[in-house]
Design brief:
By secondary structure, the protein is an alpha+beta fold. The protein has a single domain, classed as 2-Layer Sandwich (YaeB-like fold), CATH 3.30.2310. The protein is built from three helices and four strands. A four-stranded mixed beta sheet has the order 1-4-3-2. α1 packs antiparallel against α2. It is globular, with a radius of gyration of 13 Å. It starts with a strand and ends in a 5-residue tail after the last helix.
Amino acid sequence: MALRLEIRHEATVEFEEAVAYYALISADLGIRFREAVSAMFTTLQATPLLYPAATAQLRKAYIGTFPYCIYYCVKGDTVSVVAVHHTSRNPKRWQRRLRK
């Protein structure tokens, strides 16, 4: 049984900004990025413990051919996405969200 997926507002904004960036380079690239992240969301719902721990609370899943990873936590029957993070950016951008 797939778990419920919850994507925090900040993660949605990051995701949509990345899609827009890749779409400016090439419409096909924007579509491929959206599909890769959506496929990872589906995988996280089905097998959330497949990916390694990044912190005591979060796990991290890399997005194949794109320099992004998804930080998420599993609580009960919910996978909560905290960040869709570009791996070259400062991780403090998403780490501040843990204090909220």
